[in-house]
């Protein structure tokens, strides 16, 4: 599978206080660059696997600012170049521009929609604001209702920060009452976030405490299973399967993900765009296969393992954590994630919760001597058995597992 996170513009109609988006915010992607991006992405995906899958994640800036016609054209290019590939489109948006015209299009073209909202109104409207300082909640909540009415696959994305973490109970109730699947991410340190992270960013410990509070609400929720957090599902499945299930923990995340900006420049991921130190080259001039041979792509692919991680029980699941967060916080990818100690606490917590469940095979949980575990054939079989079970459909299986927790 290949994911291209495409930023058709860096422009935005909001000015969230922690936004990592930087660079000039005026330009938009030309139709020629759009075509090169889709053509090259499909060709590279096919070279990896004839009948593989490509995810196009539309991102930014605010991706909906480039207008509906841009996406109608994108669909035409996808149809022209996909051949035997399957593809999926995800609109990652602040939600403010969604109306029924867009919803008709999302339904027609089977888009998934991810809307950013940091919780309930009184916390969201502190950070997710426009240039006049006005909060975005009312507008975004209306968009969420519309997307739900159209039954478009929807998730919401929350950035955990000092403003919303004290209100996680209220936020969980809101998500559950509104039946919103969600994702949670901690702040990264670039763009406008550099100025605000000291004030509203979380320490690794605070991140873990917030994450765990939400996880436990979800885990013990009497209506568990009614909503899903992809980060909870991925990390739980990772712990149970003994290997990473998301890009944060993947050993070589840059093998399967690239991000293309409005000028056609390609980077390892959305949060490393538009850092000139990480540009692979331009999609208008080179194929992705060639770009993957660039010095920067090779550097990203050959991230060294931090010595601390080599000794860590969770190495197979976490692999040093997010490459971009290592870079943004410490100036190098060859070290571990800024949130390392929080991640460790999170994986330990998940293990504890998994051990409360009666009917799953727990032999696979990494024992203290994880090195031996990797050598032991019996345990490896168990790991792969669980992994297969989970990778078939992580979501459903984790929900089933959570169901089992209440037996
Ligand atoms: C950069 S925005 C671009 C797409 C769109 N404008 C939106 O807000 O969803 C993508 C996601 O990154 C999140 N984000 C922005 N700044 C961040 C930061 N410093 N750390 C972590 N996530 C951040 C946003 O909240 C949003 O969920
Ligand atoms: S997080 Fe999204 S909506 Fe907010 S300023 Fe950044 S790009 Fe705009
Ligand atoms: S939890 Fe920390 S030490 Fe362990 S693998 Fe992850 S980043 Fe490395």
Automatic annotation (TrEMBL):
Annotated protein name in UniProt: Dynobactin maturation radical SAM/SPASM protein DynA
Domain Radical SAM core: 1-213
SUPFAM superfamilies assigned to the protein according to its UniProt record, in alphabetical order: Radical SAM enzymes
Cofactors that this protein relies on: [4Fe-4S] cluster
PROSITE patterns: RADICAL_SAM
One Pfam family of this chain: Radical_SAM
UniProt similarity note: Belongs to the radical SAM superfamily. Anaerobic sulfatase-maturating enzyme family.
Keywords for this protein: Iron, Iron-sulfur, Metal-binding, S-adenosyl-L-methionine
InterPro entries per UniProt: 4Fe4S-binding_SPASM_dom, Aldolase_TIM, PqqE-like, rSAM, rSAM_sf, Sulphatase_maturase_rSAM
Cited PANTHER family: ANAEROBIC SULFATASE-MATURATING ENZYME HOMOLOG ASLB-RELATED
